[in-house]
Every structure is written in C-alpha cells, then in structure tokens.
Specification:
Blueprint lengths: L2 H18 L9 H11 L3 E6 L2 H9 L4 E2 L5 E4 L2 E8 L2 E7 L4 H14 L2 E12 L9 E9 L3 E3 L13 E2 L15 E4 L2 E4 L6 E4 L1 E3 L2 H8 L8 E2 L2 E2 L6 E9 L7 H11 L3 E3 L2 H10 L4 E9 L12 H17 L2 H4 L5
Parallel strand pairs: 1-5, 1-6, 6-18, 7-16, 16-17
Antiparallel strand pairs: 2-4, 3-4, 4-5, 6-17, 7-13, 7-18, 8-10, 9-10, 11-12, 14-15
Helix pairs in contact: 3-8, 4-7
C-alpha cells in the first residue's frame, strides 16, 4: 500500500475509535472499562460469535491469549473475553443467536470499548447448492429479509421483487389464499457523522477488508475424529447473504430466497451486527461456517461442527493478514 493510502487508513481508524467511546460516566462499569481501555494502549478488534458452539470452537483454537489482569468482564448479560491474538487487542463475545440479541450486544460493545474493527463469525445455512457443510462463506452484502409488509388480501403486486404469494404454495395446486403474502421493506441506515438516513435492502461489508479476505489461503478441516465430509471444504467469497429472525427449515422458502434474492446463505444475526457497525462508522466483515442446508437434506449433517471449526480457522488466518494500522492502532 502506498504511503498516502496507509496514512488515510490510519486517520480513518482513529476517527472511528473516537466515535466509539460513548459509555456514560454513570454506568456502573465506567471505571473498570476506562481502565481496560487505558491499559490496552491500542484499541480492540471485536470478534462476535453467535452461539456456544462457535465459542467452543474459538477457544479450542488456542490462538486467544487472555489478558493477565482483566481476562473477562460482564456487559449486558454477556461475558466479554479480553485478550490478544497475534499481539492485537481482541474482545471475544457470544451474541446469543438471535437478531435482536446480536444488535443489542454489538451496540453495547461499541459504546463501552474503543473498537476499530468488528469480525462477525458463526454458523449459517446454505441455500446455494454450490455450498456444503464445512464450507466457509464470506458475504459481500447481507439483507434482512424478514422486515416485511404482510399484505391485505388482493393487494400483492406481482411486479415487486421479493414478494411471496402464499397461494402459490397451496396444495394440491396453487391458487388464492386469504393470507395473501408479503413483500420486504428496506431498512433505515443511519450515518454516524450526521442526522441523515438512507434506506437500503442490501448492507455492504467493508470493501478493504473483503480484499484482504480474498487473499486468504487456508486448509480447512474435513474430518471429525474418524468421520469425514464427502468433499473437501472450501472458502468462498460469495455475493449475498440473508438474515432472518426465523430459523429456516422449509425447503420451499429456502428456494424462494435463493431465486428472489440470489443469496447463498441464511443466518439470524449478520445484518443486525453489520447495521450496528455501520451506524457507528466501524468497519466489519463476516465469516459464516456452513452447518446445515436450510431445509434440504445433506449426507454431512452429522458433521455440522466442522462449519464452526473452519470459520474460526478463517478468522485466525484473517487476523494474521491484517496490516499494522488494524493490529496496532493507538487507543484514546
């Protein structure tokens, strides 16, 4: 990277760190967290897992070195693990596996700590047949596909992309249905430095971080004990992902999401984490390990834990690739 480019990266990261220091002096943890921030010398990379399974895989990697003086702190009902990976200050926490939980804890961490980067990793269901259990997907963008208008009977506009007409799925043949159907709303995206708001279906991940992710070369685990996947797992930078506040087991809804939105994966947290990050000007990236096929049968369903293990492998490899401005940005 040219010198001018490096300077711009550092200045941008410093500005983000300043914006994130928002914890009220009346907060019961104010003194403790201030001390953690001051002792850290450098700001934090926040790594957000989505479940206890992800947390188990993260700590099995042995890459995380706990802070000697303050290894954990309780914040908003979660345990925040404080430490380092490759000498970079890291916060690890589990969001709680739902859309609202993910958004709440992301904002709480940004408010409390000097956060320069968010890495969101966890499990996902594959709805693109090119992805299998054990693969790791890196989305370029994500949509919250359950922010819906449930429509009055007879008002669905077939020209609106993404609409779902329930009568289409009547059995034994399609027809009309008083439940009608729904279409999807865009979400409000607030800019951190102004009162302006834009509306968007797709939330975009940080382009610079994605460019780094594209250079990763990692060996992913194919076996658990003596049982192995039918194919070699792969790392894929994919175009689109879907976040929903429902766990998808229905094959027809899976197909609807794929054909209407061309998404490759579904999960319950990514869009919420990214929206909170964007609202605070913090760059973010996601790594989703494929643990199921969202309503479609898989011969490898008993090896779902490999999705979590492989996602952690990619996170650690990504941290090793980050340039100095991300790994050692001065704290405030």
């Amino acid at each position: 990277m040219a010198m001018a480019g490096r300077i711009l990266v550092v200045l941008g990261l410093l500005l983000m760190a300043q914006q994130s220091l928002q914890l009220s002096t009346r907060h019961p943890l104010y003194s403790t967290i201030q001390k953690i921030n001051e002792n850290a010398r450098f700001s934090f990379i926040a790594i957000l897992g989505t479940s206890e399974t992800n947390e188990k895989a993260f700590f099995e990697s042995s890459s995380f070195v706990p802070n000697e003086y303050q290894p954990t702190i309780q914040l908003a009902g979660r345990t925040i693990h404080i430490g380092t990976i490759y000498a970079a200050n890291v916060l690890y926490l589990t969001t709680g596996g739902s859309t609202i939980n993910a958004g709440i804890i992301t904002q709480a961490v940004i408010d409390a700590f000097s956060v320069r980067l968010i890495i969101n990793f966890g499990s996902a269901g594959a709805i693109n047949d090119s992805l299998s259990v054990g693969d790791v997907a890196i989305p370029k963008r994500v949509a919250f596909t359950r922010n819906i208008n449930w429509l009055k009977y007879g008002t669905l506009d077939a020209r609106v992309r993404g609409h779902l007409k329930i009568g289409k799925y009547n059995t034994p043949q399609e027809g009309e249905n008083f439940l009608e159907g729904f279409d999807v709303n865009e979400v409000d995206v607030h800019k951190p430095s102004s009162n302006s708001t834009k509306y968007a279906l797709w939330l975009l991940y940080d382009r610079y971080l994605l460019e780094i992710a594209k250079t990763l070369e990692v060996e992913l685990a194919q076996c658990l004990d003596s049982t192995c996947l039918h194919g070699e797992p792969k790392l894929v930078v994919q175009r689109s992902a879907s976040t929903s506040d429902v766990y998808i087991l229905n094959f027809d809804y899976r197909e609807h999401l794929f054909w209407e939105y061309k998404v490759s994966t579904v999960d319950t947290e990514s869009a919420a984490v990214l929206l909170a990050a964007k609202s605070n000007g913090v760059p973010a990236i996601a790594f989703r390990g494929i643990t199921n096929t969202a309503g479609k049968s898989s011969d490898d369903s008993n090896l779902s834990y490999l999705g979590s293990l492989n996602a952690v492998t990619v996170v650690i490899a990504f941290l090793a690739k980050l340039p100095v401005p991300y790994l050692a940005m001065p704290n405030f």
